[in-house]
Amino acid sequence: MKTLSRTMILLSSLALSGCATLFGGGTSQTVNLIPSDGKTHKVSINAPGQAEYDTEIPTSIPVNKSRKDIVVTVHEDDHVKQDTNIVESKMDSWFLGDVVALSLLSSSIDCLSGAAWRYDDNVTIEVTPKDGTEADKKTADAQQADALAAEREAGGDR
Question: What is the DSSP string of the chain?
Fold first, then answer.
């Protein structure tokens, strides 16, 4: 009798859990955000099921799987422009196990829990440099002042 009970519990657990939930890593994952220029930048993260928050990249963020995309906004500073990057949600290949098994119950569970979806593990966040950053402008201004001073000195020798 105990064996029958254990078997029923095991079969019920499998029936109530989808393939993506069991084999696709569950309902959450970690996403690595890597800036395209390799430098540290401040960003805002807007991920499904979480309040928007600020952090710095490169970083790893824990997220709940969802069919909704993650929005990463690079903050503007002296060197980079504000830029928005989308981390797209994709269907988890393990979800196809539900479809092949024709299991409406487990595929519904995977969809509702978010396990039917996933994000790329490593995402490059595009960072757009400003044309003529403040440092470049100061250098150009200093060079122009030096050129004017040299011109004045040269003009005084005539």
Answer: -HHHHHHHHHHHHHHHS-HHHHHS-TTEEEEEEEETTSS-EEEEEE-TTS--EEEEESEEEEEE--SSPEEEEEPP-SSB--EEEEE--EE-TTHHHHHHTT-HHHHHHHHHHTTTEE--SEEEEP--BPTT-HHHHHHHHHHHHHHHHHHHHHHHT-
Render pLDDT for 91-141 as a digit per residue (tens, 0 to 9).
776 555 555 445 554 555 655 565 678 899 999 999 999 986 555 556 556
What's the maximum distance between 2 C-alpha atoms anywhere in the chain? 113
Residue 89 pLDDT exceeds 80: yes
Euclidean distance between the first and the last CA atom of the chain, given in angstroms as a whole number: 113
- pTM of the entire structure? 0.60
Each domain of the chain, given as residue ranges in start order, spans 2-144
Bridge-based pairing state of the strands 59-64 and 28-35: antiparallel
Per-residue pLDDT tens over the stretch 45-54 = 999 989 999 9
CB 38 within 8 A of CB 54: no
